[in-house]
């Protein structure tokens, strides 16, 4: 009964549009007070939530992606990829997805990926006669690759919460991330074949390809340094983020793409996002401490173990809950609210936590593009200066593709766990 009351109170606060950080932290503080627990654990919880070497990667990856965004590096990357595949059927859509995948391997942020590639890809595609809702939906969905293809900020947070290996999570995200990108590319081919208004792009000359590729080489090298260094064991994800930030700074200044004003804007944008993320983490830490003292995760775990004996049913319930929560919560909030409750049940049901982390991230990818509060919807709306209804109209095929990937992950777990466990 207490569990239902607490969860109902949280949902009520969120429906009242109380900011997630304050809803979690305030409710957690109230629960501690009415039970008479010492409140000295609150500042301790706040400090411990911030005092994490692993979480330091979050502001560093955000800094790196914002510097690349302000430096216009995304346009170089898009034009280079376009010069090679732009003449294919649906080639500009293919170039968009490939560019999103490469930029995702640098930034770890879906918002940065959507904003960076969207600034150049949207106008290029609409000028070539692509149906506008399709273009906007493609960009919103392509941006979600930023939290699946490593490095991924939600995977870092998942690893901190569950104390699972972040490197294994990154490795597990490669297969599903590339597979999802491949499905998006396939959909672009089908759109070009059966859609209306598509105008083929003229094949680029070898000179144009060479010039465009030379401009994009620094970005590709940056992705190789960030990802390759982690997997080669040269540095940790946090060190990789720091090195990536330094290299990104060198690149934009060497290309004369950065000014003091742009750098200040990049730092301010990164600071605002970092503060938002860390406030949510702090609030979730207080709420998590409270519900742990109330034994709620254990009661839910015991109830699931007693009533749900099939892992498939458990996964189905989790996916449905995440899909519903995605209508009014953003991805990081879902992760921080759900995982302290769900994680104890995984071992009882024999579910691999690394595999579950990837499946969870794919589901919160859906939350990024599901109305009414999918964050990527508003990013693309702002970039394209388009009605939100147009963006929503274009994302539905991609949501179905993502849900199909979740289904495939259940029937073919090796899509996620083959690289970290068997290579």
Overall number of strands: 0
Mean pLDDT: 86
Strand-residue fraction?
Answer: under 5%
The major beta sheet can be summarized as:
none
Domains (count): 1
Class by SSE composition: mainly alpha
Separation of the first and last Cα atoms:
47 Å
**Spans where pLDDT lies below 50 across 5 or more residues:** none
Shape: globular
User: What is the share of helical residues?
Assistant: over 70%
Rg over CA atoms, rounded to whole Å, is 22 Å
Total helices: the number is 20
Topology of this protein?
Layout: H1 2-15, H2 20-34, H3 41-50, H4 57-70, H5 73-85, H6 91-107, H7 110-127, H8 132-143, H9 153-162, H10 166-194, H11 206-231, H12 237-254, H13 260-293, H14 296-307, H15 311-325, H16 331-349, H17 353-368, H18 375-384, H19 388-411, H20 414-422
Commentary on this structure:
This protein is an all-alpha fold. It has one domain. Helix 6 runs parallel beside helix 8 and helix 13 crosses helix 16. It starts with a helix and ends with a helix.
């Amino acid at each position: 009964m207490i569990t239902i009351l607490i969860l109902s109170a949280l949902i009520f606060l969120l429906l009242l549009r109380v900011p997630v950080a304050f809803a979690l932290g305030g409710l957690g503080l109230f629960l501690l007070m009415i039970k008479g627990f010492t409140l000295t654990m609150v500042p301790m919880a706040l400090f411990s939530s911030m005092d994490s070497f692993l979480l330091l990667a979050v502001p560093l990856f955000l800094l790196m992606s914002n510097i690349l965004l302000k430096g216009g590096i995304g346009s170089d990357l898009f034009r280079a990829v376009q010069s090679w595949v732009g003449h294919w059927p649906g080639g500009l859509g293919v170039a968009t997805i490939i560019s999103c995948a490469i930029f995702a391997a640098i930034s770890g942020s879906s918002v940065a990926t959507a904003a960076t590639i969207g600034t150049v890809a949207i106008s290029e595609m609409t000028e070539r006669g692509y149906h506008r809702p399709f273009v906007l939906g493609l960009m919103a969905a392509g941006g979600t690759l930023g939290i699946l293809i490593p490095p991924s900020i939600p995977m870092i947070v998942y690893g901190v919460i569950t104390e699972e290996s972040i490197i294994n999570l990154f490795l597990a995200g490669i297969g599903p991330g590339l597979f999802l990108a491949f499905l998006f590319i396939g959909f672009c081919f089908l759109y070009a074949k059966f859609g209306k208004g598509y105008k083929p792009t003229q094949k680029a000359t070898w000179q144009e390809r060479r010039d465009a590729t030379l401009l994009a080489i620094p970005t590709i090298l940056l992705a190789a340094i960030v990802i390759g260094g982690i997997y080669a064991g040269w540095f940790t994800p946090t060190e990789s983020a720091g090195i990536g930030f330094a290299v990104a700074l060198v690149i934009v200044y060497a290309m004369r793409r950065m000014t003091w004003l742009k750098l200040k804007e990049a730092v301010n944008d990164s600071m605002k996002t970092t503060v938002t993320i860390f406030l949510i983490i702090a609030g979730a830490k207080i709420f998590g401490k409270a519900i742990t003292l109330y034994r709620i995760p254990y009661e839910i775990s015991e109830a699931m173990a007693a009533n749900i004996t099939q892992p498939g049913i458990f996964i189905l319930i989790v996916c449905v809950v995440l899909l519903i929560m995605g209508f009014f919560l953003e991805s990081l909030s879902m992760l921080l609210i759900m995982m302290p409750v769900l994680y104890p049940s995984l071992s009882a049901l024999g579910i691999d936590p690394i595999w579950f982390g990837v499946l969870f991230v794919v589901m919160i990818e859906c939350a990024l593009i599901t109305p009414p509060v999918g964050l990527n919807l508003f990013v693309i709306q702002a970039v394209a200066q388009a009605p939100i209804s147009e963006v929503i109209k274009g994302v539905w095929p991609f949501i179905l593709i993502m849900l199909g990937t979740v289904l495939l992950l259940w029937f073919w777990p090796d899509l996620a766990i083959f690289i970290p466990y068997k290579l």
